[in-house]
Design goal:
phosphotransferase system, transferase, membrane, transmembrane helix, single chain, two-stranded antiparallel sheet, 21 helices, 464 residues, alpha+beta, Gyrase A, domain 2
Length: 464
């Protein structure tokens, strides 16, 4: 990993050209000062790199499941500190950005970068809670665990606490992203999750008043949009006050003012706006799925790998899937999207069976293992799908077929997990059988289609 990190720093124009660096499950995500200094082709050709995605705001290098090791090595070799890991922008960088043309693409990429930096630290927690919930449900269904037992109660609490208190977790990671106090953010969002406030929700109280101003009552458990909006406003106010107050007053005045202003503001304005946005997003998706779940399943399954390829799958994940699971305990999108993983796995198995290249065969096994064990599909997409073309197309088609099948039976998942063999318990429920059959359909149809269509192996792939 040392050589890979050293080469990447060099080919990205050197340490001084890197503004920020962070990572998700498989990619290094960097912001660069001058992209003209980057040797993209050399990065693509570097051993250990699966692909490059150059968006307007970020330069992404696809590494695979060992991306964290490369990231840590880059941090050690540069002056970038932990705060850069969460993509903090410096004043000079903000000034440079304001000079750039304001385009929809730039804003959308910036939105994705924010979303990714906020939710990436929470992924292991989501996976752990999801699997625990899945195993608990499965254990009660097969009679190993009594549904009314205290053991089941405690395990359920352990698994669902993550989503119950999701606004607090998001407040912490968002505070790091927006360079503001995570402890104040935690206290502000915590006010809306206090037992007294939740009691108003349980009693179906429509509103209360604060200094004569009506305060709408909502259940903010599991909500992410209100938390993100709140912490963003907090960061603006905190930075403003730090610029106006002398240092000696920061410790006492800033927390007091932020709590005094923001808790009521969140309860009266920001929270309801975020809640309505969450509701509208969920209702929009539910309307599309309920109008024709077969078509919805086919579309989601068919295009999900394309979303992953460009890194935009986090938009629906964070605005719809995670809030839905937190509020209703289930999501159909998470089930339909799992077909994309198994479609690519089937296509990659066809590469293994048809190819004469030992390199491709070896990488095929690695990619399939990644999907089955961890639900990570990027190695298959970038390492084989993009390069060989046919497996990517076949994988998408196979996933669409499997997604349509799941849509017909209204399959749902009960936790936010990536589609793999180890995450099947997260789908334990009345439609588990249809989930397994759907994944099998995606896998087999993509494999057969790849074998029929074939693919062209270039000489440079043989050498790799």
């Amino acid at each position: 990993m040392e050589k890979l990190a050293k080469d990447l720093i060099k080919f990205m124009g050197g340490e001084q050209n890197i503004k920020t660096v962070t990572h998700c499950a498989t990619r290094l995500r960097t912001e660069l000062k001058d992209k003209s200094l980057v040797d993209t082709q050399k990065i693509r050709d570097t051993k250990g790199v699966m692909g490059v995605v150059d968006s307007e705001s970020t330069f992404q290098i696809v590494i695979g499941t060992n991306v964290n090791e490369v990231y840590e090595e880059i941090i050690k070799r540069t002056e970038l500190q932990e705060k850069e890991k969460i993509n903090i922008r410096h004043e000079e960088d903000v000034k440079e950005e304001k000079k750039e043309q304001n385009t929809f693409k730039r804003y959308f990429n910036h939105f994705l970068e924010i979303v990714i930096s906020i939710f990436t630290p929470l992924l292991p927690l989501f996976a752990g809670a999801g699997l625990l919930r899945g195993f608990t449900i499965l254990a009660t269904q097969i009679g190993v665990l009594n549904e009314d037992s205290n053991t089941n109660l405690i395990l359920t609490l352990a698994a669902t606490s993550v989503f119950q208190f999701l606004p607090l977790l998001v407040a912490i990671t968002a505070a790091r992203r927006f360079k503001t106090s995570p402890y104040i953010a935690l206290a502000i969002m915590g006010a809306l999750l206090m037992p007294d406030f939740l009691a108003l929700v349980e009693n179906e109280t429509d509103s209360i008043s604060y200094m004569g101003v009506p305060v709408p009552i909502f259940d903010y458990s599991g909500q992410v949009i209100p938390a993100i909006l709140t912490v963003w406003v907090q960061s603006k106010l905190e930075h403003f006050m730090k610029g106006k107050l002398v240092q000696s007053l920061h410790m006492v005045v800033i927390p007091t003012v932020l709590l005094f202003l923001l808790v009521p503001l969140v309860a009266i304005v920001i929270g309801p706006i975020g809640n309505y946005l969450s509701i509208l997003s969920a209702q929009g998706v539910d309307l599309v799925i309920s109008s024709n779940s077969v078509i919805a399943g086919a579309i989601i399954g068919g295009i999900w790998n394309i979303f992953i390829m460009f890194g935009i799958h986090w938009a629906p994940n964070t605005t719809v899937v995670i809030p839905n699971i937190a509020s209703t305990g289930e999501s159909s999108i998470i089930a339909y999207a799992a077909n994309a993983n198994f479609g690519m796995a089937g296509a990659v198995l066809a590469v293994f069976l048809r190819s004469k290249s030992k390199t491709l065969q070896s990488f095929s096994i690695t990619s399939i293992t990644s999907v089955f064990l961890s639900g990570i599909v990027e190695p298959a997409i970038y390492g084989l799908g993009v390069k060989l073309k046919t497996p990517l197309v076949a994988g998408c088609v196979g996933a669409a077929i499997g997604g349509a099948f799941m849509g017909f039976f209204n399959v749902v998942g009960y936790a936010f997990v990536f589609g793999g063999l180890t995450t099947i318990p997260a789908f334990a429920g009345p439609t588990l059988w249809a989930y397994i059959v759907g994944l099998t359909i995606s896998f087999v149809s993509a494999m057969v289609l790849t074998l029929i269509l074939g693919f062209k192996e270039s000489n440079n792939m043989e050498e790799e």
